[in-house]
From TrEMBL:
Protein known as: Obg domain-containing protein
Entry keyword annotation includes GTP-binding: yes
PROSITE patterns listed in its UniProt record: G_OBG, OBG
Domain annotation Obg: ranges: 1-159
A Pfam family annotated for this UniProt entry: GTP1_OBG
Domain OBG-type G span(s) in chain numbering: 160-187
UniProt organism field: marine metagenome
Keywords noted in UniProt: GTP-binding, Nucleotide-binding
InterPro entries according to UniProt: G_OBG, GTP1_OBG_dom, GTP1_OBG_dom_sf, OBG_GTPase, P-loop_NTPase
Molecular function in Gene Ontology: GTP binding; GTPase activity
Amino acid sequence: MNFIDEALLEARAGNGGAGCTSFRREKFIPKGGPDGGDGGRGGNIILRVDPNLNTLVNFRNQKYLVAKNGQAGSGKKKTGQDADDLIVMVPKGTMVFDIVSNKVIYDCCEEGKDYLIAKGGEGGAGNFRFKSSTNQAPRRHMRGWSGDELSIRLELRSLADVGLVGFPNAGKSTFLSHVSAAKPKIG
């Protein structure tokens, strides 16, 4: 079994979708006004603890974590669809470090808890949001906000099931070599 205890990754959350510039058009309404919808939210990157994993071998060939972008808004005040969050499963005891500052972001030790690594960008506003009493037909909209980008290091802390404590030359290594397949240096 391969034991990988460290992984370097680039995490990029999804960008928000752009707002829409659109005007209401119906048969007997010549000047219907703006009806452009807002853009959808970009996807977040979330780490979740999986009790069945015990190594970081899944990240051996993976260098990037990229969430999807939100969809653009459309006419009739339709908001763009929010992007799905990217959920990444990690083993219990994984520590997440920001590579730039070398600070611990999270210590993933609780099962069932979500750890937000990168937040997705908010969607941009459609032209309906810019309507006012002085500007009743705005022709502008906003682009979506960019999602977070960061470089992270995942480090797995191995938790021992059993510990041997004793005086020097008490036979700890000999005992370990007889009861397991370990080959400690004796002498």
